Amino acid sequence: MAWVLDTEYIEPEELTAVTRRALAEQQVNAFTLGRWLPNVVIDDITFQYTKGGTGGLAEASVYRSWDAESRIGRREGVSQVMGELPPISEAIPLNEYDRLRIRSLDDADPVRRAIAQDAYRLATNIAARFEVGKGEALANAQFTINENGVTLAPVDFGRDPAHSVTAAVLWSDHANAVPLDDLESWVQTYIDTNGRPPARMLMPRTVLSHLRQCDQVVRQVYPLAPSGSSPMVSVEQLNTVLESLDLPAIELNDARVSVDGTPTRIMPVDALVFVPDPGPTDAAAPTDLGGFLLGTTAESLEPEYAGVDGRAGVVAATWKTKNPVRLWTHAAAVGMPVVREPNLTFKAVVV
């Protein structure tokens, strides 16, 4: 089936601009993990970054004697990491029947509007898959692909094993679990590694519900209530307890998307994840933690895309097939999350 570029309704440079704006809007309005791993455009299909350059404990200088030589500094734990960015693309057809029907609508250009709507949908779909990758990177410090007949061996970003733990007593055991002790211990591990505490803990409602019912938490709010008879602690009361113990604030993340037809959670259902302070929702540069790198597609190098402003990032165009007659709105990108300071995250399985 031969595809031919169609510019009757919209040029690739205009449709690409629409798609890129839609992708940026998704990072700001629909998906939240871009505050830690923002979309970052690079004009390449490979990535290279310095691991260990900004996280961990600060290396303190030392005093010297008068007239003595300066101590030579060191870059402890710094290494260069390289890899390749995988491709992702999708096309939505405008069938001949639908195309004929919408041409009769009372609209200046209904086909053009339909194409723009399809481009927005494609951007949303791509952003959803990117968000799954960001969630995996934050929770597991790795990135994998196993869908649509494509398998990518896990890219392991190298988080310290001490930052991936399981509670000794799961928080679903409300009578015996000690979640506040657990959190204080895990926060201390995070501080020992990074020199500062985590800013927030991401968790689903299932974890929040169990945390509110644990006896150790309930006793902080209702110390005189008979065992097993006290009410569930409210979210407001829980936040007060956490703040009084100088523990990180809770941010709920129960987002789900469909990946290759399978409902998929963005963050794990049974765990919490410590993260540092978030950046702005519209960031375009990596944070200390890392970023989601968007590289250069093969499509952008083709003559049909010559008018597109900047080769790197998502690109889109309308294509036509003759047998049967169809218009296709097509969007393509290459990209994956890259975590350059994996120890700024911490995962604890708690239920």
UniProtKB/TrEMBL annotation:
It holds the Pfam family Phage_cap_E. Gene3D superfamilies: phage-related protein like domain. InterPro entries: Lambda_capsid_assembly, Major_capsid_GpE. This is Phage major capsid protein E.
